[in-house]
Structures are given as structure tokens and as C-alpha cells.
Amino acid sequence: MKRTVAAAALLLVAALALGGCTPAGQPPEPTPSIPTSAPAPSEGSIPAATPSQGVDVEEVRSSASAAGRPKAAFDEHCQVWALPEADSKQQAWANELGSSFLAARNADCPDAAIFPFYYVESFEAGKEGELIVNVDSTINNIIWDDSEIKSISALDRIALGVLDLIADDHPEVSRVTAVTQNGQRTSSSDLEDLERARSDDSAQTDGRLS
Questions:
Q1: Cα 47 from chain centroid?
Q2: What residue ranges of the chain have pLDDT lower than 70?
Q3: Is the preceding peptide bond at 30 cis, omega within 30 degrees of 0?
Q4: Which residues fall within 8 angstroms of residue 147, CB to CB, at 6 or more apart?
Q5: d(CA 157, CA 193)
Q6: Terminus of the chain with fewer CB atoms < 10 Å: N or C?
Q7: What is the CA radius of gyration of the chain?
Q8: Which helix (H) or strand (E) holds 15?
């Protein structure tokens, strides 16, 4: 990832966090155009979030829609989402990192986090040291209003932002890759990208930019 892309991505993530956006509100400027429907994800091995028992998912979705929540962030109170079953050491590791990311965002689920993190669907292990972040495919249809950041995709922001939030506490992580559910788009950030972005952001003093 180029230096300017990495730095701009973290600057935007930091600005969103410092802006005090609450989960119940729409994401702050720059505001993307949010699509009204999602492409159907292809069949695959992506671990799915497990809905909580006894929850009417469609009722939660309808209520959120009526309140003006984006479709990608309907579960703001975390009634539906849960981490995938830890049926292997790799998935248990991915779940641990996912939980660490959510704790850093003060959220119990991705939908309770600020934009663009509420597009996150689940986590899984990739190659050694790599965390895969599965992302709602509707993120592919975002159109940025600000021409200065059009070159930086929301997937870039997710990959770099998640790495920023977990790298210090999990030194075994060397890369985060964000991938849409249909597998058509991916974005990866490694520790070199993170180091460059942090050093470029002179406005931050604590080394944590997300």
C-alpha cells in the first residue's frame, strides 16, 4: 500500500473516532452513498456470525430500518451478531483478535462501531500471522463525496484500522486483509504500512490512530 494511502486512511479513521459519532447516528462526513440493497454473497467457507438464540432477526432489521440505520449496521444493540464457533485453533485465534478489535472500539459487535467498521461480518485466520476480516459486499458500492479520498477504499480503511487497533497487543499479527463476502475485492495492510501511517500522523501523540 502506498504511503499516502495508508496515512490518509488512518487520518480519516482517527477523525471519525475523535468526532464523537455515536452508534445510533449516521457516519460523519465525508459521507458515502450507502446502497439500499446488498449483492448476494457467493457460497464459500467464510465463517458466518451466529445469531443469538430466540432473536427475531427480521424484526430487529425492520426496527433499525425504521429508525434510519444503514442496512449494513442494523444490529446496533448486538442482538443478532456473535463470533463464529471456535471449532479450531485458527478460528479461536481469529475470534480472540476480533474480540480485541471490538474492545478497542468499545463495541460488542461490529454494528455498534463507527463507519466503516460496521461493514465487518466476521473474522478468520489466513496465512501465519494474518487475520482475515470478512466484510459486507455492499461496501463495494460506496461512492465518496470527497474527491480527495476517492483513491482510498473503505476496505483500505478497515484493513489498516483493524491492524492499528490490535497490533500493539498482539505482536504475532503481521497482516490484516479485508475481503468482501463475494471475494471480488481485497485490501491488505502489514506492519510496514502501519508504521509509515503512524509516523506520518503528527497530530497523534499516543501511537494509536484508529
A1: 16
A2: 1-54, 144-151, 202-210
A3: yes
A4: none
A5: 12
A6: N
A7: 16
A8: helix 3-18
Q: How does strand 175-180 pair with strand 186-190?
A: antiparallel
Q: What one-letter code names the amino acid at 10?
A: L
How does DSSP classify residue 155?
A: H
Report the pLDDT value the prediction gives residue 10, as an integer from 0 to 100.
54
Residue 176 host element (H or E): strand 175-180
pLDDT for residue 71: 85
Give me the half-sphere count of Cα atoms (radius 13 Å) on the Cβ side of residue 42. 6
To 10 degrees, the CA torsion angle through 177, 197, 21, 57? 0
**In contact, 39 and 182? CB cutoff 8 Å:** yes
The answer to whether the beta carbons of residues 209 and 198 sit under 8 Å apart is yes
pLDDT at 187 (0 to 100): 94
Picking from 17, 202, 194, 205, the residue whose alpha carbon sits closest to that of residue 104 is: 17
Rounded CA separation 56/79 (Å): 9
CA distance 172 to 156: 21
Residue 107: closest CA among 162, 160, 152? 162
Q: Max alpha carbon distance in the chain (Å)?
A: 48
d(C-alpha 18, C-alpha 205), whole Å? 13
Give the other-Cβ count within 10 Å of 67's Cβ: 10
| DSSP-based three-state secondary structure for 116 | coil
Q: Are strands 143-144 and 186-190 parallel, antiparallel or unpaired?
A: unpaired
Identify residue 101 by its one-letter amino acid code: F
